[in-house]
Amino acid sequence: MRRFTRLTVVCATAATTLALGAAAFASASTRPGSNAAAAKAAAIAALRDITANPPVTDQQVPGTRHTVRGLTRVEYYNWSGYANDNSKENIYKKVSGDWTEPAITCPTKEFQLAAFWVGIDGFTNATVEQDGTLAECYKGTAFYYTWWEMYPTNDIQTVGTTVEPGDKIAASVVRTGTSYALTVTDSTTSGNNLSETETCAAATCTDASAEWIAEAPGGPRGEIPLPDFKTWKLSAASVTSGAKTGNIKTFPDDEITMVSGESYKLATPGALNTAGTGFSDTWDNSY
Hints:
The chain has 287 residues and is mainly beta. The chain has helices at 22-30, 35-48; strands spanning 8-9, 18-19, 66-68, 71-76, 79-84, 92-100, 112-120, 129-138, 141-150, 157-158, 168-176, 179-186, 194-199, 210-215, 231-241, 244-246, 253-259, 265-269, 279-283. It is built from two helices and 19 strands.
């Protein structure tokens, strides 16, 4: 995920995408006794109003990449987690991971946003093929969604709007030729699953990296504050390059710490587990 551009909401059972607009929320906000529905409609509308600057192509903090005992560590302004990097021999075609949706804390009415996702590309280039969950603080209340994003539009497509903390989430991106199957399954709360197939030419989407990321969306320095998600625990990580399938450790991996413009930590990944299939990512600060 780069900057948010046009954001749309998709019905989980529909084949078409509906652009967000006032009419899209009229029925939800006017039902009898629908204060909760109106609040959710307003929260989704707030996502739509996050605008439209050109995508940022690189959010790595300059000069922070270094290797310690075989592990490459890097700082980013908006990502925290792990990536398998773009070694020339590795062309990635599948990435997946599971997590339990973390509960965010919204102590004030400040707008805050966190994204949890898996994806191909984006680590060192501007193409992205990603999906996962969003957690939003809007006027002191938390809202949760499933979403996907695909180059070249890089529009964030929200699908499920009834995700809850504690929901069991499984996400994957699978490339077959020039087709990308983006899938998110919420096995706890119905109505949030998504399955989307998109295409991107091989010369454009280079499949140069695979990622498991907690993100502060919005820009290179996290202009949208990061809500307190406490700990995001990624498990069952799997990745395929060519004929080889393995875990995060199987391919050259980078540990990514999210920092502010003043270089203090916003979110920090823990060490990979022994199997290389999971890690915990801890919230440190909002901005």
